[in-house]
């Protein structure tokens, strides 16, 4: 009895035989499979709501949902191998990679915004009254081309007064050892702006 093909790659290459020099090596096939499995791992780590926006087949989505339900390490590993195999059947791998990169860059921008807000909050807390006013003016300049329909396009003087009041409240909380409600509110307001 002839031996069965155990590798899926063999079946795909038998349909259209390639010359010896054009066929991918066994090592290249393994690298490609590992890269697709890693892509599957990245997709599986995304929240369900974000994953729904990615161009995946329903079979792959269901496999990712199954992976999330498993608790044992070995079953997760086997399921991830299955997801990697399903990824080979996906039609638009470049679009998946592009969408994943766009999501990652959006996450990085959010992280930078949070860090900027934290740094500004800390600088405002340590500054005196005049320096606080200067920091607020330099951080939130008046933009004449701003769209009035956009959120947080309030009067700059009103916005500066609001931030200044939050800074005073946060300093008062810190001096008297109170819970940092205004300190957190100041951070949220700076992050939103």
**What's the rounded overall pLDDT mean?**
80
Report the sheet-strand fraction: under 5%
- Structural category: mainly alpha
- Tally the helices: 9
| Portion in helices | over 70%
Q: Termini distance? A: 72 Å
Q: What profile does the largest beta sheet have? A: none
Shape: elongated
Low-confidence stretches: none
Q: Regarding quaternary structure, how should these chains be classified? A: single chain
The total count of strands amounts to 0
Secondary-structure element pattern, one letter each: HHHHHHHHH
Radius of gyration: 27 Å
How does this structure look, described?
Helix 6 runs antiparallel to helix 7 (129-139). By secondary structure, the protein is mainly α. The model has no long low-confidence stretch (mean pLDDT 80). It has helices at residues 8-15, 26-44, 48-51, 58-69, 73-89, 93-126, 129-139, 156-176, 181-192. It is elongated and about 85 Å long. The chain contains nine helices and no strands.
SSE blueprint:
Elements: H1 8-15, H2 26-44, H3 48-51, H4 58-69, H5 73-89, H6 93-126, H7 129-139, H8 156-176, H9 181-192
Protein traits:
193 residues, mainly alpha, elongated
Gist of the model:
This protein is mostly helical and 193 residues long. 72% of the residues lie in helices and 0% in strands.
